[in-house]
């Protein structure tokens, strides 16, 4: 079965940047092709902007900032309500675009990418309505003001959601935004910009500059007119962005990689916890920063857990993401596929046992960047597959002896973004979660909350997105003594 071709849409053939409230050609006129990872065919084009375009975008944002930040918050929120409405009207197209440029299966594109993005924007609007924009502290009046020009640099794995997680907070705060989306997935950002244009956001408040990270991203991080840099991506590039921005004393928020653990305590419901953990590892073909890529189980439960995990992974439908019923689409690119299969091959060479999947191509899928959902075990705590982010559909299962060891293993990587604890009751799971050095922990399958703070400990980054916390990343605080 070869992947079904998603029809190419006129909305995906783009060449312009959006600066100062209008579309304009880039200084160089160059464009790049966007690949559909399921078909390996070009599915659209995008601007290949450069440093001069970044410069123009920062100028437009700086010019727009004073009046945008001076608006009463409820007037800014009314503008953002219009943006949300314009996005909702494009919901189906956004889903189709996510399928085409990420390779996410339809259901995942709809629920995890687009609807979650809209939920996050709604939660920002609610939080901004409740925020203490001014408060009295003794003889002081404390004011919260937009930080200035915010450069937002985003990755390819959830291209709409990641952008909304940043610009929702930034625009609600009164900052003016320059967005540099990921090279591999610029089309969702173009559709978002169409919605912003339709919603009559004041010119210059939002600017879109798609282009290479080391050119446009770095120009933004270094630009003296940029006050805040909000970056989501790899730890390696995040460190570079922070170093470049440091010279200008900018505020820097980093949402980086993860190696999160799902911890099954003795007495947890294996039949619920194991399949849910496999799903969380495989969601979006494992290209999720919060993916639970390690499953920690009591040694006595190891065989049962491996059996459940292998059966669940083996039953996942891998294939054309545009076909309803597909669980896993391809990974985003040929390079990503090589990276992921390289991790699997090296783990196997180092003695890991593959209990489901493996590095070879899934049967019947000769084209597309497909990887089989893979479960490995027999891995040492220091093994590469346990320590490093794979960003593909790979789960490592590790046994532990005693809860203290489980906590040590869960905390035993440089990362700390997410995780889960499954216990016989909520209190025992919460007690363990309190000891995990990580930003989000789901207790016994607790659901994602778009109003709760999101971000990492350690090398998973700093700063928080979503809800009130995501707005505060883009606020300055001023005290007037009366
Ligand atoms: P990446 O770091 O390669 O790129 C991220 C963004 O940075 C892209 O827009 C890229 O163009 C830009 N960039 C690259 N070099 C740059 C430079 N020198 N200066 C400025 N910008 C530059 O990451 P990716 O491959 O797009 O995404 C995958 C990574 O993102 C994974 O490690 C994943 O864990 C992480 N991620 C983290 C979160 C989170 O919230 N913590 C969310 C999603 C993805």
From TrEMBL:
InterPro entries linked: Ald_DH/histidinol_DH (IPR016161), Ald_DH_C (IPR016163), Ald_DH_CS_GLU (IPR029510), Ald_DH_N (IPR016162), Aldehyde_DH_dom (IPR015590)
Residues forming the catalytic site: 255
Molecular function GO labels: oxidoreductase activity, acting on the aldehyde or oxo group of donors, NAD or NADP as acceptor
Organism, as annotated: Actinomadura meyerae
Protein name: Acyl-CoA reductase
Keywords on record: Oxidoreductase
Source organism phylogeny: Bacteria, Bacillati, Actinomycetota, Actinomycetes, Streptosporangiales
Domain Aldehyde dehydrogenase: 23-479
Protein family membership: Belongs to the aldehyde dehydrogenase family.
């Amino acid at each position: 079965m070869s992947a079904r071709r998603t029809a190419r849409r006129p909305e995906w053939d783009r060449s312009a940047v959006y600066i100062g409230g209008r579309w304009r050609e880039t200084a160089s006129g160059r464009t790049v092709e966007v690949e559909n990872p399921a078909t390996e065919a070009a599915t659209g084009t995008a601007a290949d902007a450069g440093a001069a375009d970044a410069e123009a975008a920062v100028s437009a944002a700086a010019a727009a900032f004073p009046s945008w930040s001076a608006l009463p918050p409820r007037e800014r929120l009314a503008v953002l309500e219009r943006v949300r409405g314009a996005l909702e009207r494009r919901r189906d197209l956004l889903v189709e675009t996510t399928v085409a440029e990420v390779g996410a299966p339809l259901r995942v594109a709809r629920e995890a990418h687009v609807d979650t993005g809209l939920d996050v924007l709604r939660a920002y609007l609610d939080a901004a309505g409740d925020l203490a924009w001014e408060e009295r502290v003794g003889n002081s009046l404390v004011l919260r003001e937009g930080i200035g020009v915010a450069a937002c640099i985003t990755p390819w794995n959830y291209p709409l959601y990641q952008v909304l997680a940043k610009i929702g907070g930034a625009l609600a705060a009164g900052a003016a935004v320059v967005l540099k989306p990921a090279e591999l997935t610029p089309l969702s950002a173009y559709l978002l910009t169409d919605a912003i244009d339709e919603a009559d956001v004041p010119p210059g408040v939002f600017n879109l500059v798609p282009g290479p990270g080391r050119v446009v991203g770095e120009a933004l991080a270094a630009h003296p007119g940029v006050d805040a840099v909000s970056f989501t991506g790899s730890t390696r590039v995040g460190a570079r962005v922070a170093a470049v921005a440091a010279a200008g004393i900018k505020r820097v928020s980093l949402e980086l990689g993860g190696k999160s653990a799902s911890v099954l305590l003795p007495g947890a419901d294996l039949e619920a916890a194991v399949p849910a953990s496999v799903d969380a590892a495989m969601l979006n073909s494992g290209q999720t920063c919060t993916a639970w890529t390690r499953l920690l189980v009591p040694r006595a439960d190891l065989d049962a857990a491996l059996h459940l995990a292998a059966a669940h992974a083996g039953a996942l439908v891998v294939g054309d993401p545009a076909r309803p019923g597909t669980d896993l689409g391809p990974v985003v690119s040929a390079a990503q596929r090589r990276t992921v299969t390289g991790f699997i091959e090296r783990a196997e060479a180092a003695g890991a046992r593959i209990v489901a999947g493996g590095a070879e191509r899934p049967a019947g899928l000769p084209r597309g960047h497909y990887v089989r959902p893979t479960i490995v075990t027999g891995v040492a705590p220091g093994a590469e597959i346990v320590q490093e982010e794979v960003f593909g559909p790979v789960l490592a299962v590790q046994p532990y002896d005693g809860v203290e060891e489980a906590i040590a293993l869960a905390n035993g990587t440089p990362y700390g973004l997410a995780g889960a604890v499954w216990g016989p009751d909520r209190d025992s799971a919460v007690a363990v979660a309190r000891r995990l050095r990580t930003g989000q922990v789901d207790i016994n399958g607790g659901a994602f909350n778009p109003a709760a703070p999101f971000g990492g400990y350690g090398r998973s980054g700093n700063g928080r997105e979503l809800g009130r916390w995501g707005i505060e990343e883009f606020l300055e605080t001023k005290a007037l003594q009366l």
